[in-house]
């Protein structure tokens, strides 16, 4: 498979994940933050820890944030299973990961890193398009228009 085709295939996977998340409404700021940090998390924490983190955050229920974590975690597992040619219902995946060869792990890591990179880039583009969503505790009476907010004269930062 050529490099360009592989890259486009991974980009399409990332696009599908973001469409699933966006179908539930505006994407929350925490999701954008996590996707921005996903490539670094994979490199620093490793594949098993990253998968465990997304699994822990993907609580049951219909909370959009938990569902977003579930969507991203499922996409990471799918890429991993596809690269390592595992069945969809693989038992004890962490044990199975521990028995993979270094070559297989490196190849799977590159695939997950590519997906994380595309999720990061596409999420950054969506974040610029989407109106800023309020964080818990923000006042509905005082919404901030991030495009017109002037920097503070003393610190140079926006409000």
Structure description:
With 159 residues, the protein is mostly helical. The chain has one domain: AF1862-like domain (Peroxidase, domain 1). The chain has helices at residues 3-22, 29-45, 47-57, 64-84, 93-98, 102-129. Helix 1 packs antiparallel against helix 4 (64-84) and helix 2 (29-45) runs antiparallel to helix 3. The longest helix has 28 residues, at 102-129. 20% of the residues are buried. Residues 134-159 have low confidence and may be disordered.
Give the helix proportion (percent range).
55-70%
Unreliable stretches covering 5 or more consecutive residues: 134-159
Q: What is the architecture at the second tier of CATH? A: Orthogonal Bundle
**Overall 3D shape:** globular
Radius of gyration (CA) equals 18 Å
Order of helices and strands: HHHHHH
How far apart, in Å, are the first and last alpha carbons?
A: 48 Å
Number of strands: 0
Task: Tell me the major beta sheet.
Answer: none
The CATH topology is given as Peroxidase, domain 1
Summarize model confidence as the mean pLDDT.
84
Percent strand = under 5%
Which structural category do the helix and sheet elements fall into?
mainly alpha
User: Total helix count?
Assistant: 6
The count of domains is 1
CATH homology-level superfamily = AF1862-like domain
Mind telling me the CATH class?
Answer: Mainly Alpha
Provide a quick synopsis of the model.
With 159 residues, the protein is an all-alpha fold.
Index terms:
single chain, 159 residues, mainly alpha, Peroxidase, domain 1, 6 helices
């Amino acid at each position: 498979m050529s490099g360009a085709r592989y890259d486009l295939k991974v980009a399409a996977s990332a696009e599908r994940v973001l469409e699933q998340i966006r179908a539930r409404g505006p994407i929350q700021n925490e999701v954008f933050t996590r996707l921005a940090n996903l490539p670094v998390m994979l490199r620093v924490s490793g594949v098993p820890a990253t998968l465990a983190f997304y699994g822990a955050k993907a609580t049951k229920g219909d909370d959009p944030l938990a569902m977003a974590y579930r969507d991203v975690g499922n996409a990471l597992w799918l890429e991993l299973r596809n690269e390592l040619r595992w069945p969809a219902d693989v038992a004890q995946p962490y044990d199975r990961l521990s028995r993979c060869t270094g070559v297989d792990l490196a190849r799977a890591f590159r695939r997950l890193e590519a997906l994380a990179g595309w999720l990061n880039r596409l999420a950054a583009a969506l974040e610029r398009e989407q109106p800023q969503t309020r964080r818990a505790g923000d006042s509905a009476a005082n919404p901030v228009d991030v495009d017109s907010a002037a920097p503070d004269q003393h610190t140079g930062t926006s409000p």
